[in-house]
Automatic annotation (TrEMBL):
InterPro entries the record matches: Ribonucl_H (IPR013520), RNaseH-like_sf (IPR012337), RNaseH_sf (IPR036397)
Record key words, sorted: Exonuclease, Hydrolase, Nuclease
Every Exonuclease domain range: 5-177
SMART domains named in the record: EXOIII
GO molecular function, one term: 3'-5' exonuclease activity
Alphabetical GO biological process terms: DNA metabolic process
Record lineage: Bacteria, Pseudomonadati, Pseudomonadota, Alphaproteobacteria, Sphingomonadales
One of the record's GO cellular component terms: cytosol
Protein name: 3'-5' exonuclease
Taxonomic source organism: Sphingobium limneticum
Keyword set includes Plastid: no
Amino acid sequence: MSDPIFVSVDVETAGPYPGAFSLLSIGACKVDQPDMQFEALLKPVGDRFDPDALRVTGLSMETLRHTGLPPQSAMAGFADWLASLGPAAADRIFVGLNAPFDWAFVNHYFWAYHGSNPFGFSALDIKAYFMGATGCSWADARSSVMAKRLNPRSSGDHNALHDACYQAELFRLMRTR
């Protein structure tokens, strides 16, 4: 059996949960080869949005209606990219910082617009991993605390691809200590 392939994933959305709110941006990179990247901006599937969510990301529902990929195309592209990362027998492990949030959108969109989820049915949460590795409290399992302990070179900025690469760096640093 092949070693698992860890994939750092980050999303930006129009609101707090899938189904009612749209997935707007996906960024991903292979954790151990972060130059292997995927990025997609998606057309919104509805009009509902949380103004605070859009303010944080700088994304525009109107712009994405014209420039974003249809969800079917974005998810097919993401699945193809995931398949290109290594042997078909290797599990693709979804890695996220607050993985439950990002996972919910990616899982929903894969099933709704692609028919299956290449990640299977689970994800690895960097916050929980950090707690286990350091013994810290949940309150201290924030990226700002992680950054102070791990000294990454990059930082997050609410761009899905940039954040996926930042998360990958944090996860690599945790695994090497």
